[in-house]
Amino acid sequence: MSACRDDDPRIIGIKSKIRVVPNFPKPGIMFQDITTLLLDPKAFKDTIDLFVERYKGKNISVVAGIEARGFIFGPPIALAIGAKFVPLRKPRKLPGEVISEKYILEYGTDCLEMHVGAVEPGERALVVDDLIATGGTLCAAMNLLERAEAEVVECACVIELPDLKGRDRLKGKPLYVLVESH
């Protein structure tokens, strides 16, 4: 499901604040830059508010944010809905015992890690990131949470690149996005 189909004027404001940077980080990539969204307090607040409105009252106890931009959106959502925030980080960034999940990217492999014990069996989790492209990172995040026996309720992203069909890889889990970009 995508909020961009709704008639909410906040979506138009959010979309207008996302800068597209051609050929970054390599030729042919049209980078979706959310830093310009963060510079506008109203657009940033509207982004958080739309997610909070969707998830308030859904008994979500864990908001898992994917490094690094999931760390921007996840904590305010977690605070507003009364959930804990669990960071999902790149390798060797978390102290203590972790579980890891490797995944394939368009240009290689990567890995996400989560602290052992950060999530309890049966907890209801929301995965948050800024963007879904091919879906590999979100799948790795869901796998980590499911290995800890959490129930992944939904994935939430500010931006979706629908042409890359990342939604199709999410094992039937719902995806909520605010803005589609082509």
Describe the structure.
The chain is of the alpha/beta class and 182 residues long. It contains five helices and nine strands; from the N terminus they run αββααβαββββαββ. The protein has helices spanning 9-16, 35-38, 41-55, 70-81, 136-147; strands at residues 19-22, 30-33, 62-66, 84-88, 98-105, 108-115, 124-132, 151-160, 175-180. The protein has a five-stranded parallel sheet with strand order 4-3-7-8-9, with helices on both faces. Helix 4 (70-81) links the parallel strand 3 and strand 4 (84-88). Helix 1 (9-16) crosses helix 3 (41-55) and helix 3 packs across helix 4 (70-81). It is globular. The two termini are 17 Å apart.
Question: Any descriptors?
Answer:
two-stranded antiparallel sheet; 182 residues; 32% strand; five-stranded parallel beta sheet; alpha/beta
Number of helices: 5
Strand order of the largest sheet: 4-3-7-8-9
- What structural class should be given to the helix and strand makeup? alpha/beta
N- and C-termini, Cα separation:
17 Å
Name the poorly predicted regions: none
Number of strands: 9
- The H/E string reads HEEHHEHEEEEHEE
Mean pLDDT: 94
The Cα radius of gyration reads 16 Å
Oligomer: single chain
Strand content: 25-35%
Percent helix among the residues? 25-40%
Task: Give the overall form.
Answer: globular
Biggest pleated-sheet summary: 5 strands, parallel
